[in-house]
Design brief:
The chain is mainly alpha-helical. Helix content is 73%, strand content 0%.
Length: 293
């Protein structure tokens, strides 16, 4: 029986490892392909078919064209504004809302939670949202991508659950010492919930960095386009001519292919660099936010 169990475990481990390796390859290969293509010679890349396991030649022309494009710089600036101020607003309002909803003595707490959770399943729709944004004068401003999305219901529930796991005795001791609710929140609750705060930063930062749809709806001024909207315009509208000026029509078409890949890398690498600094908090924060309901 021991031998059979041992062989069964070995077979399971082999299949499990093989499946995991396959999933890793399938997940990473598109990014590796884009990376190799961005460094490839445009003429050789255009004639290449099938898998790409290394750069075809080596050229930095695509990155030079991307970095020289003023639209990329403007997009970075606008996205950084949305990222910094958007995440700050998200964390402030989400933590304050989660603190209130996690207190046991708040009147109509369950009613408020029901109303908030209800918004996860039913919303007013895009047209009412547009009319509200227009009515408060946020159209054609970067704040139109920040203020209407100040709180995510899903993230609010995670943070509320984490706050509920902090012992009530800490709050009671602070109140005896004369602390008000703001002091309790910012000096006790939040410092003890840093893993969850790190997860919230990652969730909100990725959402802000990748956001383009609502920017395309609310913003018409090209000088206010975030990076992902510039990237979408390059990829979908094939608007790479401004980055390959001075070349012939055929050369522009060839260079345009590598420019697309280089633009994807420029837009993707910054947010990938943030993850290693928050990864050690990520699993712990998600588990803390899911233990209680």
């Amino acid at each position: 029986m021991k031998t059979e169990n041992g062989w069964g475990d070995r077979i399971f481990n082999v299949i499990n490892y093989a499946l995991m390796i396959f999933l890793v390859v399938v997940t990473l290969y598109p990014l590796v392909y884009v990376l190799f293509a961005s460094f490839s010679d445009s003429a050789r890349l255009l004639g290449h078919k099938g898998f790409l396991w290394r750069p075809l030649g080596f050229s930095l022309d695509a990155y030079k064209s991307v970095l020289d494009n003023p639209g990329i710089g403007i997009g970075f600036r606008n996205t950084l504004f949305i990222l910094v101020f958007g995440v700050a607003v998200n964390l402030l309002l989400t933590s304050m809302g989660a603190y209130v909803l996690s207190r046991k003595n708040v009147m109509w707490n369950k009613v408020f939670m029901f109303i908030i959770v209800f918004t996860m399943f039913f919303s007013g729709g895009l047209i009412p949202l547009y009319l509200v944004v227009k009515g408060v004068g946020l159209l054609d401003t970067l704040w139109s991508t920040i203020i209407p999305f100040s709180v995510s219901t899903f993230n609010l529930i995670i943070m509320r659950t984490a706050f509920m796991g902090i012992p009530d005795s800490l709050e009671e001791s602070a109140k005896i010492d004369g602390a008000n609710h703001f002091t309790i929140l910012f000096r006790i609750i939040i410092p003890l919930s840093m893993p969850v705060i790190a997860v919230m930063i990652l969730y909100y930062a990725v959402d802000k960095w990748n956001g383009w749809f609502y920017a395309s709806v609310f913003i018409k001024d090209r000088n206010l386009f975030p990076l992902q909207l510039v990237l979408r315009e390059i990829l979908i509208s094939n608007s790479t001519d401004s980055m390959s000026s001075g070349a012939s029509a055929g050369d522009r078409f060839q260079i345009g292919e590598t420019i697309k890949y280089a633009t994807i890398m420029v837009a993707t690498v910054p947010i990938l660099c943030v993850y290693p600094f928050l990864q050690r908090f990520f699993v712990k924060g998600v588990m803390v936010g899911s233990l209680k309901g």
